[in-house]
Design brief:
alpha/beta; two-stranded parallel sheet; 12 strands
Length: about 550
Amino acid sequence: MKRPKLKKASKRMTCHKRYKIKKKIREHHRKLRKEAKKRGHKKPRKDPGVPNSAPFKEAVLREAELKKQQLEELKQQQKLDRQMEQEKKRKRETNPGDEPSNAPVEEIEQSKTKKAKLGKQNPKKIHCQELKKVIEASDVLLEVLDARDPLGCRCPQVEEAIVQSEHKKLVLVLNKSDLVPKENLESWLNYLKKEFPTVVFKASAVLKNKMKVQKKAVPFKSKVCFGREGLWKLLEGFQETCGRAIQVGVIGFPNVGKSSIINSLKQEWICNVGVSMGLTRSMQVVPLDKQITIIDSPSFIVSPLNSSTALALRSPTSIETLKPMESASAILDQADAQQVVLKYTVPNYKNSLEFFTKLAQRRGMHQKGGSPNVEGAAKLIWSEWTGASLNYYCHPPTSWTTPPHFNESVVANMKRGFDLEELEKNNAHSMQAIRSPHLARSILFQSSGLTNGIIEEKDIPEELTRQRESKQEVGDNNSNMVGDQESVDGEVDEKVSDISPVGDTTKALPEESTAGEPSAGSFILDELAKEDDIYDFSTDYM
């Protein structure tokens, strides 16, 4: 007897129920989209990388690393091209009457070769060359000083070069005046105005910026600018006494606020500013009005003969490699320990290493395994002391003596042509308007005195230039290796490009291969290309 078949349940349902289910699904999807929108972009899927069982794994990883380096170089080049286009647009807006000259092809090629040579030069030499150009082209030079350590921001070599060149005036600008107590600012003003005309200044934060990306990266404390009218009237009065158009150069050590002062005077976001030290690497001409033109300059180069504190505070990170532990320790040695403890709310410490350990524990900065991130705490201290947010101050010298690089007649000559009475009134008004921190909330710092700088290219230490040249040779070899890799067959290139490189686990490329010789990776991939079947890592292990 046949067994009867069991009847399956029907999937039919009423229209009301079916539409209700579809509606619920739509609501659920809408809810998921809203949550994803709040979270931001979706987390990208983690790349599993190349499996250990894959043949020639090291060669494939090397090729992928070369591709990654090539893409980074291309992005940097595109970024520089965009910045150049923005500068050209700004020049066209400021000087609409100027038309680009139709230079012949040979001159364009010569300019390209000059730029390529400049790119291979030591950046310290380029800084010295640009600084000399600014000094030679300027009638008045504004030496910008950090009001927290004015003496440490002065360079006797640059001041001596300005004094020796005739018919040039030097004016001191005390920037970041809102970060020091009012009594200390007044005492420094009385000390510095005995030598040169001194202006109290505080740069502005919010401006009509054309470079919106840069504005977000700069943490400013206040939106108001102080000292602009006083500096403007001082320059206008000197221009009227000269009876001709003048050029004003802005010079100083890194992170003292040179570009910020220019932006505040122009009331536009013209010069590139940021938290990192040494952003300005070439001179930039900005017309303030028909009679006054201001020139931005790269920072001074610090001499290696200075104290460790001066090297930590005044060395531009764009061309110097600093050790955060040593730099932060040198800064802490000159600061008042009791006030540092109160500022960072940590227990008393015996040495800098103990302080970094306690600060890392206090801020929750830990490494893998739960150990305190001492190096991260040192970087935090160094960034705060070189930035524009920490309140600390230095006492001026008790007695004033004439510096060795000029005498009283030079001081009188530097003050000639300026309306000093009007300048004193404007400084007093600025000091009353600035909201200064209380003396008890600021940290007392022991200044290391004048900071020696390098003006001449011959004074740059040879060891640093050799290290720079060796790094460039390694970079050239790597670029040649990249050129050799591009000659691989197209089919292999597609397979390798699908594999994204492993970030921190990949090793650095060996530097043994010289320019013109094929690398081991390219040879192995050539052998792979000859085979019929190429192993596709991306499809089997994703």
